[in-house]
Amino acid sequence: MKTYQALTAIALSALALPALAQLTPVGTWKSVDEKTGQPKSEIVIEDQGGVLQGRVQQLLRPGADPKALCVECKDALKDQPMVGLPIIQGAKKAADKDVWEGGKILDPENGKFYTLRLTPIDGGQKLEVRGSIGPFGRTQTWVRVQ
């Protein structure tokens, strides 16, 4: 009987862990063009010692060239492949809330970096991604893939 109870507890714990892990930006996300509503790209966000980093994993726009380069980027990112391009860097979890901030996000379409804030919503199934310069900015909602 105790073996059955232990196995049940382990199984229930294993089922609960993914739900708890969802309240984080870590994972794979589909970015959506706010003008057209169409998927733009798939982004992978990873935790590297408490600091989030994110890169483009795949381009999703119809007809997108998988070998496209970031022609608008500056410095070391200039003409780097879009697939694999690091677009999120340096975000850290804010104290006492489920928000990651303090990092930068790159908009490959104009080559500019913006101050970043990431907020998981809808139980972690969506991610509010806010890029801003001072009081001006925009927020996109990304959808969790994994």
Index terms:
single chain; 146 residues; mainly beta; 8-stranded antiparallel barrel; 1 helix; globular
If strands are numbered along the chain, what order do they take across the biggest sheet? 1-2-3-4-5-6-7-8
Number of extended strands: 8
Helix and strand element order: HEEEEEEEE
Q: Any low-confidence stretches, pLDDT <50, length ≥5?
A: 11-21
> What summary fits the major beta sheet?
8 strands, antiparallel, barrel
Molecular shape: globular
Helix count from the secondary structure assignment: 1
Task: Report the average pLDDT across residues.
Answer: 88
Q: What is the gyration radius calculated from CA atoms?
A: 18 Å
N- and C-termini, Cα separation: 36 Å
Helix content: 10-25%
Provide the structure class: mainly beta
Residue fraction in strands: over 45%
